[in-house]
Design goal:
By secondary structure, the protein is α/β, with parallel strands linked by helices. It is built from 19 helices and 21 strands.
């Protein structure tokens, strides 16, 4: 029966399938073309559509559409936006008139500060204390210590929130503080925290903690929000103390992972006026997930007056697919181009776009010493292979690449000339540049940068250098999988 059916209608069905898939490829290709994507991303999507038309179309619906143009999640917290814009405009005028800082204080910072003022509405702040936290156990102890001191409010925002030992301890503290009248608000990313138990969330809610998911995905195969994730790690306590960096909430961040071994990360504790702008970022995100308008800038409970601190110069900047500019990418690009002597980079993923790659190679060929530390053990193999595909061209330009051996290194740091450093949630990859909501702190303080460089030297001593000669001898199958992963990297 099947044979007779196929002989009668087989050619017609093949023709219908061929025409349908051709139309599908043309239509989706036109959609991609009209979104003015990066050419490499456009080519990657068209390659997927040609090889897997139906599956490629479904994947594109799920993760590929351009959220920046649609501004689906653009949120305008009007009072805060006006306040930030007024500060930014005053600081831009101050910079133009050379009145904000002395020439010695400016150094090579002026262009970087101006960039983040213009592309991220990120004012620079001087009345700050800051502490670099390089050990997960110590970092969480400092976090819990500050949470216990909370009197008015606690604001948390995390990509990964786990119901494990450290997550349960955090939950207990938040519930205990909520019971005493402290207002506790928590944002967790719906995809990053996919495995978070309903009981964990219910326990929080039943005890007065307000907890909301960021962009929940109900039907992932038709939901174009799946690819746009909140990768930020933010804590604000009473508007006075804040934390940001690479640490999520999970037992692996305490230092050891059952498969990857020792987990190395870096976090930052802030006290001072920089916390106000970390608070503002949380406000924007909370209004989006909850539709609740929090008090404005004049409420001293959320934006308290700050006593004069040591004077650490810090700029806290957010970036995301709803931004007008790719602030993280541009800040990394400007940092690299500002280097005169040295660039030290620690990142778990190295998938630079053409601009960042060119900036790195140009700096190296100009005589700048560039050292990059990456994990020696991958947590995501395809991403790791894509990172490896860039090794040869970077090594040929004179860049040194090292693979961390004790376990997995998750810190995200770019340090330049011992004077300026970026520390935060953003990796040196296209996902952080274009798809994720990120937050970084730009540190213009020699003492803080020296501490980061000291940690870098320790990590370097525990890493193996990648040699160009050894890389050239890798088997053909490794070259093929690395090239394939690189081709797909714009859409990973």
């Amino acid at each position: 029966m099947w044979t007779s059916f196929w002989s009668a209608y087989g050619e017609t069905l093949l023709w219908v399938y061929s025409v349908s898939t051709s139309i599908l490829i043309v239509v989706v290709g036109f959609m991609i073309f009209m979104e003015k994507k990066n050419p490499y991303k456009t080519i990657a999507w068209l390659a997927v559509l040609n090889v897997f038309p139906i599956l490629g179309f479904l994947i594109y619906l799920m993760v590929g559409q351009n959220l920046r143009k649609r501004k689906i999640i653009r949120t305008k917290y009007i009072n805060e936006m006006k306040y930030l814009e007024s500060i930014v405009n005053r600081q831009i005028e101050c910079i133009e008139n050379n009145q904000c800082l002395t020439e010695e204080q400016w150094g090579s910072k002026k262009r970087l500060i101006s960039l983040l003022l213009n592309n991220a509405n990120a004012p620079f702040t001087r009345s700050n204390r800051a502490e670099v936290l390089s050990d997960g156990c110590y970092a969480f102890e400092r976090i819990f210590e500050e949470l216990e001191k909370a009197e008015n409010h606690i604001h948390l925002e995390y990509y990964i929130l786990r119901d494990d030992n450290i997550g349960k301890r955090l939950k207990e503290i938040l519930i205990q503080k909520a019971r005493t009248g402290v207002r506790v608000r928590v944002i967790y990313d719906a995809v990053g925290s996919w495995s978070l138990s309903k009981k964990f969330i219910r326990d929080m809610k039943d005890n007065g903690v307000q907890i909301k998911p960021f962009l929940p995905v109900i039907l992932p195969f038709i939901n174009n929000k799946l690819n746009y994730r909140n990768h930020r790690k933010i804590i604000v306590i009473d508007g006075r103390v804040g934390f940001l960096g690479g640490l999520n909430v999970g037992d692996e961040y305490l230092g050891y992972h059952p498969k990857l071994g020792k987990w190395r990360d870096t976090h930052l504790m802030l006290a001072g006026t920089a916390v106000h702008f970390l608070q503002a970022i949380f406000f924007f995100d909370w209004e989006f997930v909850s539709r609740e308008r929090l008090p404005n800038r004049t409420d001293r409970a959320y934006f308290p007056d700050i006593e004069s601190f040591e004077g650490k110069l810090v700029q806290v900047a957010a970036s995301g697919p709803d931004s007008d500019w790719e602030a993280v990418r541009q800040s990394y690009f400007a940092l690299i181009n500002s280097a005169q002597n040295s660039i030290r980079i620690t990142t778990p993923y190295l998938i630079p776009d053409e601009g960042i790659s060119l900036a790195l190679k140009t700096a190296a060929l100009s005589g700048v010493s560039i050292q990059i530390i990456l994990p020696g053990k991958p947590d995501h193999k395809i991403v790791f292979w894509a990172s490896q595909s860039y090794f040869e061209e970077l090594l040929e330009a004179g860049i040194e690449i090292y693979l961390y051996q004790p376990g997995f290194i998750h810190a995200k740091i770019v340090s330049v000339d011992g004077e300026v450093a970026s520390l935060g949630s953003a990796n040196l990859d296209m996902r952080s540049f274009q798809l994720n909501f990120e937050v970084n702190a730009m540190l213009y303080d020699r003492e803080l940068v020296e501490r980061l460089d000291s940690d870098f030297a320790k990590d370097l001593s525990r890493s193996i250098r990648v040699e160009l000669e050894t890389l050239a001898k890798r088997p053909l199958r490794s070259k093929i999988r690395q090239s394939a992963a690189r081709l797909l990297s714009p859409i990973l």
